[in-house]
């Protein structure tokens, strides 16, 4: 596969074309920036904590090296049962994300492959900080880039302008500008009172052998225990940084869409989902990764539908702290990697394409001989969304993304 330069023609916005070089992504949207339109343009960021495997989300099934590197967890090329869903003849989408295919066909969904943070850290904690502060390699940054974005946007910085859904206010929205945090609606993965040994034993005595309720009680306890154990494994909890599994995301997505439609002042939103640290038993078309991806695909499709007309003025960015190794490991999983795929959805996204400086997955193209390189800095993607979609001038972009290399700038509109 020859090096492919997808980013030379990507634009977000009607009748706008922004050629910005081989490793950048550009966005633009119509609508005024003043008066009643100050909060018209919306941005939603979904963080997949734990490092989702971008090479199985958007799989290079057209490259023979892909299945060589992943003999048991690699996706089949389109046409087979449970195979990847064809995107462009070379890349295929994971079949668990089938609810997103209508958006792909409508050219409202795109991906930027081999993207991510230039910092080489393979620490979940550090890499998440760098993506949330947009200052790779620097842990001391006191605020998140979305909080700085609140302060940079025109108009009054009302508390309802920026919203996080999750157990705690995330680093990305922490800072001087006001923001609000709401808990997740789904609580199925939280430890409950029955997980206390004494209480659980007492209820087991009452119901386990009950003629009418015993079977339902026992099955419910087993199902709950499996979910909690999966969510509460020490390593995965650390990687998730408190984010819940994506099982409840469709409900949270519908809730978020309703909030944004009912409050015109709400412009920015953030939600984090955990469960992506798939070191073992990752699976291919089915299995652990597929089970995580299915509610994400359904949730994003629900969000797009429930936003209604607002979706035309909304950009949704899905990102993760880093990717995973190109080669599967001995446990049928993948380890911490580098480059990944960013997802971009919205009414003005020039979608139906996989963008990025893609160099293939041959041994000589891999970073350190083990994973995808980062050929597109994640900040260049975010910066162009901020400039072309949210209409921020260059001087504010410099504050929002300090020390960002000039990979995607300046812009030239044709």
TrEMBL record:
Keywords: Signal
Superkingdom of origin: Bacteria
Signal peptide interval: 1-26
A Pfam family per the record: DUF1501
Coiled-coil annotated spans: none
Protein name as annotated: DUF1501 domain-containing protein
Classification of source organism: Bacteria, Pseudomonadati, Pseudomonadota, Betaproteobacteria, Burkholderiales
